[in-house]
Specification:
single chain, DUF5995
Length: 255
């Protein structure tokens, strides 16, 4: 599908979530998180919180279409960007736990798509004017990720126990990791905004390769994370439609 505005992005994500619940498809895990982030961004646009609301609508639409294109390419012929192929390729893997599916989607979208969407929303020197609104999304994303992480704990008891034992430390680490990835995406957007089409394509390809390597590390981590993930897998819900429904109501609707 192709979205023309942020309302189309919300509707498209809602359709993916709805179909995933019907089919028991784990693609709905990240789509549920992403839908809620987009709803919150739309609410912030309507509330006038951004310096340029129409520009943020265009930005979010370009960002959303990157995800829809990757999703459609995977469904069509297992194609699309490398990092998204890594993420989608784990959907039927019984060893990949809920939180890994979420992180794989977040990682691909931030480490590849975000810089591309920012540079195409504000090419050339205009990209510098996007900075404040770009940073404001960090706060929205962190709030939604925190709510969804708490929601995951209800369907993944061992992960919930780790959260309780660790207090909010792990949530701060996750928040910091997202912010640091977004900061890197901002620097990549500055590079892309100053390049011609051919140079952009070469840079995007390099970003995709790097994001794909990171995806493989997320999917198959080493060290002490491996036995911890096995315990998480054994205790978390395998009812995919119910997990999707649970994740999709982690954040109360605001717009």
């Amino acid at each position: 599908m192709a979205a023309d505005n942020i309302d189309d992005v919300v509707d498209g994500l809602a359709a993916i979530v709805r179909d995933a619940r019907r089919d028991g498809d784990r693609v709905g895990y990240f789509a549920a998180l992403y839908r809620q982030v987009t709803v919150e961004v739309r609410a912030a646009i309507h509330a006038g919180l951004f310096d340029d609301g129409p520009r943020m609508d265009r930005f979010d639409t370009l960002f959303g279409n990157r995800y829809f294109d990757a999703h459609d390419a995977w469904r069509r012929d297992r194609g699309g960007p490398r990092c998204w192929r890594e993420a989608f390729g784990r959907l039927d893997d019984p060893e990949t736990v809920i939180v890994q599916h979420l992180v794989l989607g977040v990682s691909a979208h931030i480490n590849l798509d975000l810089a591309v969407a920012a540079a195409r929303t504000a090419p050339g020197a205009a990209v510098h004017g996007l900075r404040r609104d770009f940073l404001l999304i960090n706060d929205i994303l962190a709030r939604v990720v925190l709510a969804v992480q708490r929601s995951v704990g209800a369907v993944s008891p061992y992960l919930g126990l780790l959260d309780e034992l660790g207090g909010r430390g792990d949530e701060h680490v996750l928040d910091f990791g997202i912010r640091r990835s977004r900061e890197e995406a901002w620097h990549n957007a500055l590079v892309l905004a100053g390049q011609d089409t051919a140079a952009q394509e070469a840079t995007i390809d390099l970003l995709d390769v790097r994001a794909a390597v990171l995806a493989r590390l997320i999917a198959r981590p080493g060290g002490l994370l491996r036995p911890a993930l096995e315990l998480i897998r054994r205790t978390e819900s395998q009812d995919v439609p119910e997990v999707i429904a649970h994740l999709d109501r982690a954040v109360a609707p605001t717009g």
